[in-house]
Amino acid sequence: MGYLISQIVLCLVIAAVIGAAVGWFLRGALAPTATHAAAPPHSGGGGPHEVYEDHNDAELEAAHQRLHDIESELLSVRRTIGHLEGHRSD
Question: What is the pTM of this model?
């Protein structure tokens, strides 16, 4: 019985090592732009880091605008619900 348990534990350890190695490889292979975007900007004129920063600023501004639009719509819906609930209780 001890032999069976040791074989199961050994297989689980091997699977964990293989899974960690594959995950580490895929993280590096599928997300190479994350290292470029996180790198500190260099001094100079118009390098690749500045392109990433401009792109990120544009995405951030668009996300803020979408958030503002959604908040406005939510406020409108809440007002409508409050108005309808007021009529229902009469």
Answer: 0.37
